Amino acid sequence: MKTRQRGTRKGWTTGANAAAAARAAALGLVSGAVPAEVEALLPNGSRVRFAVHEGAVAEGVAHAVCIKDAGDDPDCTDGARITVDLRLTSGSPDTISFRGGEGVGRITMPGLGLDVGSPAINPVPRRNIAENIREVAAALLREHAIEVMISVPGGAEMAKKTLNDRLGIIGGISILGTTGIVHPYSTAAFRASVVQGIEVAANQGQQCVVLTTGGRTEKFVIASLPELAPACFVQMGDFLGPALDTCASVGIQQVIIGGMVGKLTKMAQGEIITHAKRKAVDTGLLAALAAECGAPQAVCQAIGEAETARFAAEQMESLGLGAPFYRALARRTITTLRARYPDQFDWRVMVCDFSGQPLADVRVDRASTKQ
User: Which helix (H) or strand (E) holds 34?
Assistant: First the structure.
């Protein structure tokens, strides 16, 4: 049997599909008919055409379905029927609210940036869905509120192949996506592109490479380091190990890593492939760092028993210990990486939050005996 060659064709997130279906349904409320395709605005500002596989309008309710295409790196939600039902309500005009229907998970634990009890529709998709609705239904919103119901038939079964249950997301999948685009990070082709990017930087005579885990962290470091040439910035995705191995082989002198708390925790605990499905975040490590920063024992215990790095960050922020905690995490990341690549690089770890705002910046050169 011939093995299917995996490429780099991009796909679209559950959030992007929900936004497209919401836009189609909003057009249905405005015109009386749901279109067969729609051009939707993605969170990254680009626009993409989506086919609409079902559409109906009746008595102030519009229904639309978009089917997720995950591109060349399909996950368990590939082919999911992302279903949106919009309903005009008598609430405050210009208000858009969200509900989770069949197959959309419900938040049962803190630490995910969403209220406990709310549907697992992440903040960026919520904003993106609202933007799409407002673009086409501004006149309706001047007189009505709109309720957005998102459903994913079969979502509960899909969720069994994810970490949702461990994270306290019960009953279905999450509606996710910070850019709207699914990049095939796990493919050999993407890994090769990371290696090639570092080689290009070295061939241009650059001695510094800035490694980022995704679009938001890349935007953050580019804005923070305007003195560096564009070739220095390499989006490595989850491929920390291959990226650092390549930096070592081509003689890069300084490695800067831009990241958020979750991925940096994976690095600090020694993971060289940081994909969420590979290994859970070591919250015990985060509890130890919290203790070093002076957090009460009860808070440290709660952090250690939690499932997400974000929970730890929220707890430390609430105590006014966010800054020392982020610095401690950056230092631990460098300590772990120095042990793997002794005397190889000058290190810098730049930490940002989910909005791309700076949280910590720690530097350690290869000659230093201090962390």
Answer: none
Q: List, as own/partner pairs, every contact residues 312-320 make where C-beta atoms lie below 8 angstroms and the sequence separation is at least 24, other chains included.
A: 312/111, 312/261, 312/283, 312/286, 312/287, 313/261, 314/110, 314/111, 315/290, 316/290, 319/295
Please give the Cα distance from 269 to 317 (Å, whole number): 22
Q: Are strands 47-51 and 37-41 parallel, antiparallel or unpaired?
A: antiparallel
For every residue of 256-268, which 3-state class applies, written as one string?
EEEECHHHHHHHH
Please identify which residue in the block is written with the tokens 């992440």. 122
In a domain, 369, yes or no: no
Q: Which domain holds residue 289?
A: 188-364
CB 16 within 8 A of CB 181: yes
Two tokens, residue 223: 């804005």
Distance separating alpha carbons of residues 150 and 120, to the nearest angstrom: 10
| Alpha carbon distances (Å) from 301 to 45, 116, 197, 281 | 41, 20, 42, 15
4, part of any domain: no
166-213: per-residue pLDDT in tens?
A: 678 899 999 998 888 887 654 565 676 788 788 888 888 999 999 998
Q: Give the other-Cβ count within 10 Å of 307's Cβ.
A: 18
